[in-house]
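Structural prep section.
Before we set up the soaks we want a predicted structure of the protein with 5'-deoxyadenosine in place, mainly to decide which crystallisation condition to try first. Input record follows.
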Amino acid sequence: MNEHEIIRWLREENPDRLAELFRQADAVRRERVGDAVHLRGLVELSNICRRNCLYCGVRAGHDTIERYRLTADEVTHAARLAAEFGYGTLVLQAGEDYGLEGEFVADLIRRVKKEYGLAITLSLGERTETDWRLWREAGADRYLIRFETCNRALFEAIHPPVGKNDLGFEGRIGALRVLRSLGYEIGSGVMIGIPGQTYADLARDLLTFRELDLDMIGNGPYLPHPETPLGRAAEILAKNPETSPAALHPLLAEVGFDYPISDDCVPADNLTAFKVIALTRLLLPDANIPSTTAIATNDKHLGRVTGLQSGANVVMPNLTPTRYRALYEIYPHKSATTESPEETHRTAIAQIRSIGRYPGTGPGGRTHH
Ligand code: 5AD
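Run finished without errors. Recording the tokens verbatim:
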């Protein structure tokens, strides 16, 4: 598939042709990674972040939210739940929190590996190569770092620089190659329907996944957070459906989103997210592809299962202790913010079984065929 063909699929609206795309992606998923759905227990380790990404609810500038960092015991408790639930992997995710010291995280990794034998995926943002090496040596298996968009101008418009150890656009994508060279399985992804994102941008994102030969690819629709600059820009766009987005540029710049927005942008909806999952499966047949929380948030009833039926083979149930969940509000109405880990687990299993699939066993890393 070339860029042109990907764009055609992303724009496709004919229900029969789309059904055929999803059927094909589902068949490739079954043939290459089977009917097992791998479960990754997600622990949101800290919502402290030094960045100011224009879209994110835990950006440093959002100074009215309460910040937290889990203790080692809280993480170990979540790891024990993951093991009891039969998961093969624990994902440690956080904002870019340098207060999470290299050695603290390395100790966590060693402890979880030793006591529960879980595979460890890290999603801790841009860190030094020293930290990444230390964590790999402590036993971490995989690293997730989304590049969010491969359009440099759009990337720079939504990611103000933070100074020290900021990788910048090229470094962000380069980080994936560094992480791979350290021996990690690597994962990335983008947001779908970022204001200003064109079909060509998104098609190139997909081709970038393939170029990097990613092991894991997680994407989700952009969900406007009202307390962020991009959320305010999205509101302006939504309130002026009759005005050309390009003509709204000055108003958008006023709320902090200074980008020459096109009149032909990708919608931030689940249908587009399912197309992206399907196309990703066709481009990287043996990758691990989650049906993500953003998709589940957009459609609480059918989002997750429809993702699994469009080419995805992974879900990431949230095991963060209930009292912290609402504080990890990267976007509003995030799914499962009031549940206990047990409830989150039961829902995931029921959803997987409801479509004739079953929970995977073992670490569930990428297997090449
Ligand atoms: N809408 C959708 N996804 C978001 N993320 C952050 N903020 C939002 C939002 N408002 C995604 C980013 C990030 C991941 C952890 O969550 O892609 O990499």
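Observations: The pocket of 5'-deoxyadenosine is lined by residues 55-56, 146, 148, 191, 220, 222-223, 225, 294, 330-331 (CB under 6 Å).
Flagged for discussion at group meeting.
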